[in-house]
Amino acid sequence: MSDLIVGIDLGTTNSEIASFVNGKVEVLGPEADKMLPSCVGFSPAGSLLVGHEARHQQLLYPNLTIRSIKRKMGSTEPVKLGDKEFTPQEISSLILRQLAQWAEQTLNQRIRKAVITVPAYFSDAQRNATREAGELAGLEVVRILNEPTAASLAYGFGDAVHHTAMVYDLGGGTFDVSIVSVEGDVTEVLASHGNNQLGGDDFDDLLLERLEREFQNKHGINLRDGHPEFRALRPGAGRSVGER
Q: Is 147 a known active-site residue?
């Protein structure tokens, strides 16, 4: 029997894992919404936290929590969590490992292979970093698939009619648009464009900056100076405008 191949959306704000189960696609996981916040941290006692637990502690311990790591993929910028340093790939691998565990618990079988989606405008360095994160998580990454292409495959699956569509993906940290031609199980990407530094996080930051300015004008207090807990209250600490 061949190994099951899962599909993973490694998102800026949230991540998901899915597979074919009983002839249909099923999003896997124990949570009611099946979404894992793309957030990693350490508790004050040193315990590793991934997902909801990490996001919940961000307000109290922003220096021990990291989110939106997808925006650093492909860079050599180290990520600090307390007194420890990690690469973006290492942080992403912790998210991928948690997703694989969700799938294993749901399907009662070992997960070894995965297709991971990335923004269409990801560079080779960002794609290679995503593949490395999967390998660090113990997964064989059989394919890196563009997110708009994955969306067109999902919505056009089983439809024999030829059509051309525009697929856009506005996520927590990236924005992509692709023009695709779909006929049956054949999807051809005709054109793609995007911005890897535009998404819900940026909308949240603009709203936060507006709030900070108005608060300072009204109360004379600069929330950007010496108030790190206020930054942790940004909308992205809960649900981002661009959250999938």
A: yes
